[in-house]
Automatic annotation (TrEMBL):
Protein's UniProt name: AAA family ATPase
Entry-linked InterPro entries: ATPase_AAA_core, Bact_Antivir_Def_Nuclease, P-loop_NTPase
Domain ATPase AAA-type core, chain residue ranges per copy: 25-284
Organism: Hominifimenecus microfluidus
Coiled-coil ranges from the UniProt annotation: none
Superkingdom of origin organism: Bacteria
UniProt lineage: Bacteria, Bacillati, Bacillota, Clostridia, Lachnospirales
Length: 353
C-alpha cells in the first residue's frame, strides 16, 4: 500500500492543498509553523487505522476508530475535533482525504462545532497482506519502552498517540525465520555504522559491542537510539517492504556527522520498498537527499524523490506549497535562503560592505 495523494480543505493552516506523493521518498521542508508535522500527522491518522483488524467493525465503530485516532494524534483541547477546522471567516467545515494504491481511498469531514463525530467515506479492498504504518516522532522511544505502553493505557499522559503506537511496535518480539536479502542489506549498513548490535531483554534494550559488553540505551546518544529503533523494527518485522514510514525531524538532537548515515539508511529502506515521508528544517538532511536525487551513482535504483516546500507569502495566513524533483529546483527554500543570508552576512563583515 502506498499513499498517492493527500487533499486538505480548511484543515488547520491549509485552505486548499492537493499533494501528489512519491512511492519512494518524500522530503517536506519549510519554516516553523508552516505545517510540516501537520501533513505527517494527518496522513498517519488516516492510514494507521487500516493496520488494525477491522473485519468485525460496524460503520459506527469504524467512524469512532478514525475519530479516536485523530483525537489521539492531534490532541485538541477537550478532544474536540472541530478545533482542527481552519479558523477563518466563513470557514466552518473541513474535509481531508488520502488516495491510496489500487484505487483505495479514505475521506473524512466534520464541522468546527463537532466534538467526536465525523463523516467517513472509505473505498478499501480486503487484503491478507500485512503492513505497518510507523511514525517516528522527534523524541526517541527505545529507552522508555519498558513501562510506557502500560502507563499510557492506565493514565492520562500528555503524549501524542504516535508515541504509544511506537512503544507497542518496539515491544514486539523478534520475528521467526530468516530476514530477506533486502532486510539483511539494510541491517548490515546500519550495524556497520553503529559498530554493534541491538539486544532486547525483558522489555529493555541494550547496545552490544563485541569485546566491550552491553550498554543500556539511556547511555547512548540520541542518534544511536534512533538508529537502534530502526534496526529493531526491521528485526521484529514491523519495518518491511509494505511499511509506510513517517519520520518527523530526524535531525533533532543529532550530531551533523550522523545525518549522512541516517539518510543512507532511509535510501536503503526505500530500495527495500518502504514509502518514506520526512519533515526537516535541517540543511544537512535536505542536501544529503538532494545529492541522492541529483546524482545517479548515489541512486542506482532510480528512486523517485520529491521535495515539498511549505511557505507563507504576503499577509495571508494560508500555507502555500510547491513540489520539485530536487531541492535545488525549489523556488521557496527556507533552508537555503537562510544559508545564503548567513554567507552574505559573513561577506559583509569580511569586506566591510
Amino acid at each position: 500500500m502506498k499513499i498517492k495523494r493527500l487533499t486538505l480543505n480548511n484543515f488547520m493552516a491549509f485552505e486548499n492543498a492537493e499533494l501528489n506523493w512519491s512511492d519512494n521518498i518524500n522530503i517536506i521542508c519549510g519554516e516553523n509553523s508552516t505545517g510540516k508535522t501537520t501533513l505527517l500527522k494527518v496522513m498517519y491518522s488516516l492510514v494507521k487505522p487500516l493496520s488494525y483488524n477491522r473485519d468485525t467493525l460496524t460503520k459506527e465503530m469504524e467512524e469512532q476508530l478514525f475519530v479516536k485516532k485523530i483525537q489521539g494524534i492531534f490532541r485538541p483541547d477537550e478532544m474536540k475535533i472541530g478545533r482542527l477546522v481552519s479558523r477563518r471567516q466563513g470557514s466552518n467545515r473541513t474535509t481531508f482525504s488520502v488516495e491510496l494504491s489500487d484505487a483505495q481511498s479514505i475521506s473524512i469531514g466534520f464541522g468546527n462545532r463537532q466534538e467526536s463525530h465525523a463523516d467517513i467515506s472509505t473505498e478499501l479492498k480486503n487484503t491478507s497482506e500485512k503492513y505497518d504504518v510507523i511514525y517516528i516522532p522527534t523524541k526517541e522511544m527505545i529507552s522508555t519502552v519498558e513501562h510506557f505502553a502500560a502507563l499510557y493505557d492506565e493514565y492520562h499522559i500528555d503524549f501524542e498517540e504516535m508515541y504509544y503506537d511506537l512503544a507497542k511496535l518496539l515491544d514486539r518480539p523478534l520475528s521467526k525465520g530468516p530476514n530477506t536479502t533486502e532486510q539483511n542489506q539494510v541491517l548490515s549498513n546500519l550495524e556497520d555504522i553503529m559498530k554493534g548490535q541491538i539486544v532486547q531483554k525483558n522489555k529493555k534494550f541494550y547496545f552490544k559491542i563485541k569485546g566491550e559488553g552491553e550498554f543500556e540505551m539511556g547511555l547512548l546518544s540520541d542518534g544511536y537510539r534512533k538508529l537502534s529503533m530502526i534496526i529493531y523494527m526491521i528485526l521484529s518485522g514491523s519495518l518491511n517492504k509494505n511499511t509506510i514510514l513517517f519520520w518527523d525531524e530526524p535531525e533533532t538532537n543529532m550530531n551533523p556527522k550522523m545525518i549522512r548515515p541516517i539518510v543512507q539508511a532511509m535510501v536503503a529502506l526505500a530500495q527495500m520498498g518502504v514509502q518514506i515521508f520526512v519533515s526537516t528544517h535541517d540543511y544537512f538532511v535536505q542536501q544529503e537527499f538532494n545529492m541522492v536525487a541529483a546524482y545517479s551513482e548515489l541512486n542506482p535504483k532510480n528512486l523517485d524523490l520529491r521535495f515539498t516546500s511549505l511557505y507563507r507569502e504576503g499577509k495571508k495566513h494560508d500555507v502555500n506549497y510547491e513540489m520539485k524533483k530536487t531541492a535545488s529546483d525549489l523556488t521557496y527554500n527556507a533552508i537555503m535562503q537562510e544559508f545564503d543570508a548567513m554567507y552574505d552576512r559573513e561577506q559583509r563583515i569580511i569586506y566591510g560592505e
